[in-house]
Amino acid sequence: MDPIIFFIVLTSLYGVMYFFDRFFKSCMHYPYDAFLRNTGLSVNFMTLHWHSNASAFNRMLIRWGATAGNSCTRSFLVKSFNIGVLLSFLLLPIGIILLIITIFNGSETGTSGGAAAAATASVQLEILLPGVNLPLQEIGYYIATLVMCTLLHELGHALAAVLEDVPVTGFGFKLYFCLPLAYTELSHDHLNGLRWIRKLRILCAGIWNNFVLACICYMLISTLDITMSPFYACNEHVIVTELMAKSPLRGERGLQPENVITQLNDCPISSEDSWLSCLQQAQQLRLGYCISSDFIRLNDESIDIGHHNADGRLQCCDERNPNVSCFEYIEDVSLDAPAEIPQHVCLPMRRTLEDSSGYCKAGTCTEGYCLRPMLPNTTSILIFKRQTRERQPLAPVMYVGQTRDVLRTVRVSGFVPRYKHISSAWPDALSLLLRYNVVFSIGLALINAIPCFGFDGAHITSTVIHSFLVGRVEEHAKRDLISLIITSVGSLLFGLALLKVAWLSLLRPLL
Question: Which helix (H) or strand (E) is 447 found in, with range?
Fold first, then answer.
C-alpha cells in the first residue's frame, strides 16, 4: 500500500469515529456517556484513549504480589529490580553521549530497511517510521512491537509498585494516530513516602523490563535455527517466499513461490548469506561455458564482418535477432596448439546454455570449448537450480539481466518447511518481530534513562537529588531548582537531537 493512501485511509477512519462520537454525544447523550464510562473509552481528534481505574488490574497485580510473597521469589524480584537501578545509571551517560554525538556529528543519518537498521561506522540516532524509512507493509510489526514494549515497560512499574506496597490507581492506553502508548498511575503519596532505594526500584523497573525483553529477544534470534529445526530444514537451501509484481522472474518459465533454490550458476546456496554472496559473485565474475564443437558448427550464426554496437561492445550477431548473442572463445594458455574455432561466434543464448557441459573460468574444459557471452557490464547470466519442498527436481530457470533486480524483487528464506502444511513465512515473520523488539526495547530503555520531561529519567533525577543532597542543600525549593536545571538540559539535548534527526532522515528527503 502506498504511504499516502495508508495515511488517507487512517485519517478517514479517525474522522468517521470523531464524527459519530460528536453525533452520539448530542443525540444519545446519556446512554452513550454511560457506555463510555463503563468501557473507559474516549474519542478525541486523531486520538483513542482507554483508561481503567485498575480495580481488576490491581487485583491481578495483588495476586502476583501475594504469589511473590515467599522469600525466594520476592528476593529474586527485588535483586533483579536492584540490577535495574544500576542499569539505569549506566544508561544515563550512554544516552547523554549519544545525544551529544548526534547533535554535533556532521555526517548524515542513513536510512534503514525492514525492522533492523544497517550498521554504520559512526553511532547515530534515527526516527523509524513506516512508509518513510521503514517498509509500510511492516506497520503491523511496528505497532505490535510498540504495544509490547510499552505494556511491558508499564507492567514493570506496576509490579515493582505492588512489591513495595504502593497502590496502582489507574492503567490506560492511548493511540495517537498510529502511535500506541501505555501508562500506569500510582499513588503519589505512597510513592513519595518510600525510601530512595525502594522508590528507585519502581522508577527504574520499566527500563529494566525493556532491557530484559531485548536480551530475551536477542537470545531467541540467536537460537532460532535450533528452535525451528524440528519443523524447518535450516542452512541447507533457500526457499522463495515472495515474488514482487514487477519481478522479471515471474511467469510460467520463471521462479515460483515455494521453489527451493539449491544453486545459482556454479555457486551452491545453503542460506540467505550464501544467496547474497552468490548474487554478488555472479555480478562480479563472468563465467564461461563449455560448448561442444558440433553444437558450435551447427548453430553458429556469425555475420561476416564484426563491428561494435552502441555501447562499445564487439558484435558478431545480427542486432535484429534478440535470441542470439555473441560468445568469445577463451583459449587455454597452457596449450600452444592453434585455435580450432573462431575467436567470436554467434549462438542462440538459451540453447547454448542448456547444451553446455559445465562452467569454465580459465579456458579449460574437459569437453568442448570455453565460450564466454559478451554482455554489458551490468548484465549477468543467472541459472537457478531448483526443486520442490518434497525435494523433487525442477527445470532450471535462466535469467539474463541485472542481479539487483533479482535482489529487490525476490524474497527468500533459509527456513525450508519439513511438512507441507507449514508456511515458510512464519520463521521470518517471527525473526522480524524479534528484531523490532530488540531495537525498540533498547531505544525505549535509553530514552527513559535520560533526564527529560515526560520520561522516567526526570523522576529518577529528582529522587536522587532529593535523597543525596539533603545534607548539603537543606531547602527543598533549591533541590527542586537543581533537578529542574538538570532535566531542562537533558530535555534541550533531546530536543536538539530529535530536530536534527527529523531534518536529516525525514524532512530533507521530502523536499
Answer: helix 426-449
Helix (H, G, I), strand (E, B) or coil at 473: coil
CA-CA distances (angstroms) from residue 417 to 117, 222, 258, 263, 407? 28, 19, 10, 18, 22
Handedness of CA 88, 94, 99, 100 (dihedral sign): positive
Between strands 380-387 and 397-401, the pairing is: antiparallel
Cell numbers that stand for 236 in this block: 541447507
| Mean pLDDT on 238-261 | 89
Residue 342's closest CA among 373, 297, 308? 297
- Reported as a single tens digit per residue, the pLDDT across 285-303 is 888 899 888 898 888 888 7
Instruction: Output the nine-digit C-alpha cell for 279.
Output: 548474487
Choose between 372 and 62: higher pLDDT: 372
- C-alpha 327/C-alpha 471 separation (Å) is 88
CA distance 177 to 49: 11
Contacts of 235 (CB under 8 A, 6+ apart): 225, 270, 271, 414
Q: List pLDDT tens digits, range 26-46.
A: 887 788 888 888 888 888 888
Residue 84, all three cell numbers: 535495574
Residue 77 near residue 212, CB atoms below 8 Å:
no
- Percent of the chain scoring above 90 in pLDDT: 28
∠ Cα 260 219 279 (to 5°): 30
pLDDT band at 337 (very low <50, low <70, confident <90, very high): very low
Phi-psi group of 235: left, alpha or beta (phi > 0 → left; psi -120 to 50 → alpha; rest → beta): left
| Residue 117 confidence (pLDDT) | 38
DSSP characters for 359-401? EESSS--SSSEEEEE---TT-EEEEEEEE-TT--B---EEEEE
Helix (H), strand (E) at residue 285: none
Q: How many residues appear in the chain?
A: 511
Residue 504, H or E segment: none
Cell 530484559, residue located: 212
Local structure of 163: helix, strand or coil: helix
Distance, C-alpha 148 to centroid of its chain: 16
Contact in structure between 325 and 346 (CB atoms under 8 Å): yes
**Grid coordinates belonging to 411:** 524474497
- C-alpha to C-alpha distance for 248 and 255, rounded to whole angstroms: 10
pLDDT in the model for residue 93: 92
Residue 160 contacts residue 205 (beta carbons within 8 Å): yes
pLDDT of 148 reads 92
pLDDT: is 63 or 344 the higher one? 344
Within 10 angstroms of residue 189's Cβ, the number of other Cβ atoms is 9
Q: What is the pTM of this model?
A: 0.78
Question: Contact at 8 Å (CB) between 130 and 138?
Answer: yes
pLDDT, mean of residues 55-64: 65
Query: What is the C-alpha to C-alpha distance for residues 149 and 210, in angstroms, rounded to an integer?
Result: 7
